[in-house]
Design a protein that fits this description.
The protein is built from 2 helices and 8 strands, in the order βαββββαβββ. The strands form 2 sheets. It has a 4-stranded mixed sheet, covered by helices on one side. With about 150 residues, it is an alpha/beta fold.
Length: about 150
């Protein structure tokens, strides 16, 4: 019988913690407004760059960096990037989304629906945690879960 073995690796970085997620976009202001209105992220001061950047913070220590897309980059845009409405959130890939936990789940879902944002709701198998899946204006997958 094979046992599950936990392998201990010496970490190169001590005291590592998650700091931020960066999202590239063709409209930094539009995306910032979305995250401020839907998730209450706070716009904070950021260093000056040669391109437009907006940093948003969710207390106590999560940051979202919205970065102007480089028009000369050879990289493709995101898998769902679009100027308008995007694909059905029922088809959101389970491995490609950010999740935010909230204490006012029902109010968030109502806000999404009031703004005309297409959603897909479900309850986790534990029967306690409700989830809503949707896309930001650039087509990045998002989940909001009840606490």
């Amino acid at each position: 019988m094979r046992r599950n073995t936990i392998i201990s690796w010496k970490m190169a970085a001590e005291g590592a913690s998650f700091h931020h997620v960066a999202r590239e976009t063709s409209d930094v202001d539009r995306l910032a407004k979305f995250y401020q209105e839907i998730l209450g992220l706070e716009r904070i001061q950021n260093p000056k760059f040669d391109f437009k950047v907006i940093w948003l913070k969710q207390s106590p220590s999560f940051y979202l960096h919205l970065i102007e897309r480089d028009p000369n980059a050879k990289l493709p845009e995101g898998p769902w990037s679009a100027e308008g409405a995007v694909a059905d959130p029922k088809n959101l890939s389970r491995g490609h989304h950010l999740c935010f936990s909230v204490s006012n789940y029902d109010a968030v879902v109502k806000t999404l629906k009031d703004k005309g944002i297409e959603t897909h709701e479900k309850t986790r198998p534990d029967g306690k945690t409700k989830q809503v899946f949707f896309f930001d204006p650039d087509g990045n997958g998002l989940e909001v879960a009840s606490q």
